[in-house]
Design goal:
Layout (H helix, E strand, L loop, with lengths): L2 H13 L16 E5 L14 H12 L6 E3 L2 E8 L2 E8 L6 H12 L6 E7 L7 E5 L7 H10 L5 E6 L9 H6 L4 H24 L1 H8 L4
Parallel strand pairs: 1-4, 1-5, 5-7
Antiparallel strand pairs: 2-3, 3-4, 6-7
């Protein structure tokens, strides 16, 4: 069995284990994973599709950490959020293959799916809106779909950051990948700041309380 086969095998075994079984993780490993979705090349750094990266970068900054450790095809940093060791991840596999990186990390550290938080942009929400949820469909988001397919379940937590719909006649692909204009950048920046508070709130207070607090119109 190859390296990644062993990692995914370990992940499958962890799915059935209760989240309390921290003793099965490598010593000092994370208890939670927060993965922000985006594309690694600089030309997309300020695009709507990189909102997940923006949120994870902000969490890292506020925790005094740098996402400069490369592991499992991702840029990672370990921080403490609400008293829990948490790994922040920006998959470098490109957006549509995010599941390869996320599943490998969960498998290696034996982090339960219930403790995976995925942050991503969402066309179905107005720009600036925030929605927290667990599970459900992918609504055409290929990064979310990739993670669900590799993990064999959609039952992870999502922090959905609204980016709105493109203007009539504009392709969704072009809309999510082009750089943000000044006004849109301000709206998205405010949503990124709220999402960077919401993800740690899930760890601190639980998903239901965090939903009650953050699932409001921007």
């Amino acid at each position: 069995m190859g390296r990644f086969g062993k990692l995914f095998s370990g992940f499958r075994a962890s799915r059935a284990a209760p989240s309390e079984r921290a003793e099965e993780k490598p010593r000092g490993g994370p208890q939670w994973i927060i993965a922000g979705l985006g594309n690694p090349e600089g030309r997309w750094a300020h695009s709507r599709h990189n909102v997940g990266f923006m949120v994870v970068d902000r969490i890292a900054r506020e925790a005094g950490a740098a996402l400069d450790r490369r592991s499992f095809n991702g840029l990672c940093a370990e921080v403490e959020l609400a008293g829990a060791r948490t790994m922040l991840v920006k998959p470098q596999t490109y957006y549509n293959l995010s599941g390869e990186c996320v599943a490998a990390i969960l498998g290696y550290y034996k982090v339960p799916i219930a403790r995976l938080i995925v942050v991503h942009d969402d066309l179905d929400l107005e720009a600036g809106q925030l929605r927290l949820k667990r599970g459900g469909g992918d609504a055409g988001n290929r990064g979310v779909r990739s993670i669900a397919e590799v993990l064999k379940t959609p039952d992870f937590v999502r922090v959905r950051v609204g980016i709105g719909r493109p203007a009539p006649g504009e392709e969704s692909k072009d809309y999510v990948l082009r750089p943000l204009g000044r006004t849109d950048a301000e709206i998205i920046a405010a949503a990124v700041a709220r999402a960077a508070d919401a993800a740690p709130a899930i760890i601190a207070d639980g998903l239901e309380r965090a939903m009650n607090r953050y699932n409001q119109r921007a």
